[in-house]
């Protein structure tokens, strides 16, 4: 099949644009556009023909395949975000697997995969689709190998059995302008990276068990300007022995709208989380600032420990909390206790234990034992299968999808200027409103 395609391939020479076409040999050093189905009948065929710097441009249609990208610096782009659909039909683990650096995945929909919509990874075991025990991947004695540099942009990931968009053992990347729903574990997940140098920005995650999850994701890890509304849990950052590079440290969670995370028509996660905006489980040295955390029935922000990993030195600064069961709650049900966690400048009404803003005011020494309490938490109701989550509506399109050339993914992304990240307006609590970053 591929040999036949090679014989018929129409190459568009230049920087991926429409600078003339013709059959024949590729000029030395040329970057081309490979069109699906015009030049190759399937996305996988087109990717197999592509070389670094090429653009694979996919026409509207439903594609029943799992696409693996093993060549560096390819751009995979749909001509229409809503009408280019990679559908796993619940028969394959992943919609798109990115296993090479510098790859961009743009402007398409991935759905109905038993594990992930888009998986970006340097792990051979993860790329092979080996299942995790309870979400995520336990890669055993496989050495940590990072995929370095990636971009996932304007992607819709819905109704996937683990994660919508999953960066695992990957560094130097961006997940942006995307939409994730129906993730049976979480909509967007970043795991096992240190230093990550990963930016998750301007995404919408709703109707997932968890909107965003960062596990063992440490160092230059930015989650900024996202809408995490209507999940079971909005956001978590945690340490977990199932993955390597313990403990989780040094994420920045800023400028996000995190609200109403007690949606019943969602997949029920095994851990039973419900009604929580932000959860910190054994994560340390994270900074939470200028987030709007509203209407979460259990708690706006929870800090707790794993059985053996304490949360240390987390800072909660200049956030606005409204309408939560408890605005901020710290609880340590095991002997492992937090240390040095602190608050400053937040708009809040209730904390557990009481008067946290006074007794744990920033700055605190790393050795200062964090106070703890308990509160009545609502019981999580049963969920629905991820396959039954409501279908998403149309989402914003990648600009000039048909005329832009291939996307050059930087070796290291520009990291956000945290001073310029604003508090989301209360008006964004309206259904469908998106956070806009400056």
UniProtKB/TrEMBL annotation:
Residues 158-327 form the Periplasmic copper-binding protein NosD beta helix domain. The keyword Repeat applies. Keywords: Repeat. InterPro entries: NosD_dom, PbH1, Pectin_lyas_fold, Pectin_lyase_fold/virulence, SCF-Subunits/Alg-Epimerases. Coiled coil: none annotated. It comes from the Bacteria. Pfam families: NosD. This is Periplasmic copper-binding protein NosD beta helix domain-containing protein. It comes from Streptomyces humidus.
């Amino acid at each position: 099949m591929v040999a036949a395609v090679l014989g018929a391939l129409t190459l568009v020479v230049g920087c991926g644009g429409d600078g003339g076409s013709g059959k024949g040999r590729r000029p030395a050093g040329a970057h081309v556009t490979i069109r699906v189905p015009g030049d190759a009948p399937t996305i996988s065929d087109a990717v197999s023909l592509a070389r670094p710097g090429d653009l694979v441009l996919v026409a509207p249609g439903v594609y029943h395949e799992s696409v693996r990208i093993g060549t560096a610096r390819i751009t995979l782009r749909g001509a229409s975000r809503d009408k280019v659909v990679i559908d796993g039909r619940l028969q394959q683990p992943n919609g798109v697997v990115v296993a090479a650096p510098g790859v961009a995945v743009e402007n398409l929909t991935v759905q109905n995969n038993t594990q992930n919509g888009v998986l970006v990874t340097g792990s051979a075991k993860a790329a092979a689709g080996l299942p995790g025990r309870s979400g995520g991947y336990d890669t055993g004695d496989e050495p940590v190998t990072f995929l370095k540099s990636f971009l996932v942009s304007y992607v819709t990931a819905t109704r996937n059995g683990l994660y919508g968009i999953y960066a695992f053992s990957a560094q130097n990347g961006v997940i942006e302008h995307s939409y994730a729903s129906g993730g049976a574990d979480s909509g967007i997940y970043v795991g096992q990276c240190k230093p990550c140098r990963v930016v998750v920005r301007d995404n919408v995650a709703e109707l997932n068990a968890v909107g965003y999850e960062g596990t063992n994701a440490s160092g230059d890890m930015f989650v900024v300007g996202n809408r995490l509304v209507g999940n079971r849990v909005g956001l978590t950052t945690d340490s977990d022995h199932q993955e390597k590079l313990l403990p989780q440290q040094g994420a920045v969670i800023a400028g996000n709208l995190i609200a109403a995370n007690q949606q019943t028509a969602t997949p029920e996660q095994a851990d039973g989380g419900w009604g929580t905006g932000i959860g910190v489980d054994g994560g340390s040295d994270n900074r939470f600032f200028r987030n709007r955390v509203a209407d979460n029935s259990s708690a706006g922000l929870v800090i707790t420990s794993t059985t053996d990993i304490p949360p240390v030195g987390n800072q909660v600064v200049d956030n606005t909390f409204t309408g939560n069961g408890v605005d901020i709650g710290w609880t340590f049900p095991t002997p492992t206790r937090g240390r040095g966690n602190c608050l400053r400048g937040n708009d809040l009404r209730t904390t557990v234990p009481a008067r946290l803003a006074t007794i744990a005011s920033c700055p605190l020494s790393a050795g200062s034992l964090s106070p703890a309490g308990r509160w009545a938490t609502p019981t999580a109701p049963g969920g629905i299968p991820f396959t039954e989550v409501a279908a998403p509506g149309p989402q914003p399109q990648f600009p000039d999808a048909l005329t832009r050339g291939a996307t050059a993914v930087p070796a290291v992304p520009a990291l956000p200027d945290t001073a310029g990240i604003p508090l989301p307006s209360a008006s964004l609590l309206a259904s469908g409103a998106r956070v806009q970053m400056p």
